[in-house]
Amino acid sequence: MVMPFLGNAYIPATVRILLAISISALIAPMLPPFPAVDAISFQALILAVEQLLIGFMLALFLSIMIHVMTLFGAMMSMQMGLSMAVMNDPSSGGANPILGLWFMLYGTLLFLALDGHLVAIGILVDSFHLWPIGMGVFDLPLMGLIARFSWIFAAAFMLALPAILAMLVVNLTFGVLSRAAPSLNVFALGFPMSMLMGLLCVFFSFSGLPTRYSDLCLDALSAMYQFIGGTA
């Protein structure tokens, strides 16, 4: 439900249900013995809710990692002068800029190409051994999960920093030009040049993006593993 790609709304619900049943059937023989509780008791309900919360929190690490690319695209869109286009987009209502969706799809494909989804499922299996059923949720390092929300901004800013600096140089150039030649229509010239420079920045960003994003994927998976008591 929460894991990127595997729980995407574009995948039919039947496929997701069959995938969940298949993964459960495959990993069930490898799990440690479950606590002896009545299946229809209140304690069983508490354990089920506990496992759901742990699963949601583990998947949240991956969701934050994928949305780094969305925030990266949003930062570049704002620097390119696409803020008005984002606000007037009838398909998303300004919630998801087109560059953000593009980079998010690119990051998802990179994550799948690196077999990150297989590593995530392996961490899910290990979580039953490192954090057995019944140990509770509040003893988990929840502050580490909260710190990932600041990590998403730092990681996206790190990816977007070269493009932001390049666009800043362009804006400073047109600012000096407007002071040197006040009669020149800087807006008519500046917006197309900012857009062209932004597209060039997007083009050149793809040269080093796979290497940097693979490091972010490794960092997110390591944090996900350490969250359940594993050692990096």
TrEMBL record:
GO terms for biological process: bacterial-type flagellum assembly; protein targeting. One of its GO terms (cellular component) is plasma membrane. InterPro entries: FliR, T3SS_IM_R. It is a multi-pass membrane protein. It comes from the Bacteria. The chain crosses the membrane at residues 52-78, 99-125, 145-174, 186-206. Pfam families: Bac_export_1 (PF01311). Keywords: Bacterial flagellum, Cell membrane, Cell projection, Cilium, Flagellum, Membrane, Transmembrane, Transmembrane helix. It is found in: Cell membrane; Bacterial flagellum basal body. Role in flagellar biosynthesis. NCBIfam families: fliR. This is Flagellar biosynthetic protein FliR.
